[in-house]
Amino acid sequence: MNKRNIYDLTIEDWSTWLKENGEPTYRAKQIFDWLYVKRISSIDEMTNLSKELRNKLDQSFEFQVLRIIDQHISSDGTIKFLFQLLDGHAIETVIMRHGYGNSVCVSTQVGCRMGCTFCASTIGGVARNLTAGEIVAQVLESQKILDKENDRVSSVVVMGSGEPFDNYDETIKFIRIINDEKGLNIGQRHISLSTSGIVPKIFEFADLKWQVVLAISLHAPNDELRSKIMPINKKYSLSELMDACRYYVNTTNRRVTFEYSLMGNVNDQDVHAEELARLIKDIKCHVNLIPVNYVSERDFVRTSKKQIYNFKSILERHNINVTIRREQGGDIEAACGQLRAKHINNEFKL
């Protein structure tokens, strides 16, 4: 019998499983405490559970611990992991250190099928979706690293490899698990989720009325340019995407973050800034300008610092709230997909 990943279950799932197996449902809180507060690594360590229950758990579940294939530490304290899953696939996770705490960037898929031309995650397409437990394990492994420093994960960004809304159900379950106050207790306002714009899922996500930060990977101010660099735009136009964003804002009363990667002589000119301001002027939002990361397999170049600030000032003149993302981990290939792509290339060479 194939055992389930012990991190795949919400506390409600545990209550259901316990009831089905003739055990009291209050044990669900105890199991969550062992997994996410005490962070044990074997069922035998759950000493306040009966031996009979531990045997039942052992027969049905296993700890699917991630194995570190590679680990790079940046001069700014950023740590990038390349983890191996049970089936041999590799995924990336990044710990980023800020003045306000530590954030962990998690992947939701092995690879990505969105095909964005500036991103290393899409190289080779998508191999499979991750389960909720495999996404949870990335946060847990990061927390165990921080435990050694008597520190904690204070926020999570779902912005690693993969499109979260292409793996919607598992991503939602993941958020429920890490948000649960009986476990890791990471507040919804400390969780950010980025999508390239799968419009129906934005509507569905809005209806949850969560306090999670929604980030839209925009990267272009018109359909012609966006369709060239982001194939998803051929299915869901900017008009449809903006309508979904307005629905999200009106339904949740939260602003949307628009991520905009600046690529030299592609989408970073003054005319693009003016166009962007017109596109989003009636949406409660924040724009996060991102100097594009160099990816050897891509041919984009970085926008000059002068033009980055010029682009920002144009948006500000239109009363758009805008910041420039602080760069982290540039010396360790911390951008999405870079380490995994390098690993795959090395394996192929072997």
Q: How would you characterize the overall build of this protein?
A:
- The chain is an alpha/beta fold and 350 residues long.
- The chain has 2 domains: 4-62, DNA polymerase, domain 1; 67-349, TIM Barrel.
- Helices cover 36% and strands 20% of the residues.
- It has helices at 11-20, 27-37, 51-60, 132-147, 168-179, 199-206, 223-229, 238-252, 270-280, 305-317, 338-349, and strands at residues 4-5, 61-62, 67-73, 79-84, 90-98, 101-105, 109-111, 126-129, 153-158, 191-195, 213-217, 256-262, 285-291, 322-324.
- The strands form 3 sheets. The protein has a 10-stranded mixed sheet, sandwiched between helices.
- Helix 4 (132-147) packs parallel to helix 5 and helix 9 (270-280) packs parallel to helix 10.
- The radius of gyration is 21 Å and the shape is elongated.
Question: Mind sketching the topology for me?
Answer:
Layout: E1 4-5, H1 11-20, H2 27-37, H3 51-60, E2 61-62, E3 67-73, E4 79-84, E5 90-98, E6 101-105, E7 109-111, E8 126-129, H4 132-147, E9 153-158, H5 168-179, E10 191-195, H6 199-206, E11 213-217, H7 223-229, H8 238-252, E12 256-262, H9 270-280, E13 285-291, H10 305-317, E14 322-324, H11 338-349
Parallel strand pairs: 1-2, 6-9, 9-10, 10-11, 11-12, 12-13, 13-14
Antiparallel strand pairs: 3-4, 4-5, 5-6, 7-8
What is the CATH fold-level name of the largest domain? Answer: TIM Barrel
Radius of gyration: 21 Å
What's the pLDDT, averaged over the residues?
Answer: 92
Q: In which order are the strands of the major sheet placed?
A: 3-4-5-6-9-10-11-12-13-14
Largest sheet, if any? 10 strands, mixed
